[in-house]
Amino acid sequence: MTQEAYQQIAHTIPLQPGVYKYYAADGTLLYVGKAKHLRKRIGSYFSKQKSSYKTHELVQRIHRIEFTIVDSEQDAFLLENALIKQFQPKFNIDLKDDKTYPYLVIKKEPFPRIFFTRRKYNDGSEYLGPFTSVAKVRELLSFIKQFIPLRTCKLPL
């Protein structure tokens, strides 16, 4: 898609958070991305500033753009992750694997525990996340345990 072609549709793209999908002329899904402000993010691909070879190749192949508006940046992250795993677009690299992202969980127990997990259960516990870095989750967990006395054992109390 040329910059001129993009300019003709730019006004139809909202400023809300969401997920955008780039399609080739044959209907192949090329790329899925997320944005806090859809129009700004999509527009950044068509600016005259220098871009990487990969981005240049992607933009040359874009024939159609679709977007989905969501309520928050976190919702956009979750939807993007799910779509990349489902469709595995050619130009997405980072989220193609089947790993799940970590959450911090504060168990709903008389003496709560806090730890990280990769699964959310409907158990009444408080789940924080998802996070993109296990290292950051461990760092945050260490910080919390340093200042808040929480139990560390798994024994039923």
Write out key terms for the chains shown.
157 residues; GIY-YIG endonuclease; three-stranded antiparallel β-sheet
Summarize the SSE layout with pairings.
Elements: H1 3-9, E1 18-23, E2 29-35, H2 38-44, H3 53-61, E3 64-69, H4 73-87, E4 103-106, E5 114-117, E6 126-128, H5 134-147
Antiparallel strand pairs: 1-2, 1-3, 4-5, 4-6
CATH C-level class of the largest domain: Alpha Beta
Distance between the termini: 62 Å
Q: How many DSSP helices?
A: 5
Query: Can you tell me the CATH topology of the largest domain?
Result: GIY-YIG endonuclease
Structure description:
This protein is α+β, with helices and mostly antiparallel strands. It has helices at residues 3-9, 38-44, 53-61, 73-87, 134-147, and strands spanning 18-23, 29-35, 64-69, 103-106, 114-117, 126-128. The protein folds into two domains: 3-87, 3-Layer(aba) Sandwich (GIY-YIG endonuclease), CATH 3.40.1440.10; 103-147. It contains five helices and six strands; from the N terminus they run H-E-E-H-H-E-H-E-E-E-H. It has a three-stranded antiparallel beta sheet. A three-stranded antiparallel beta sheet has the order 5-4-6, with helices on one face.
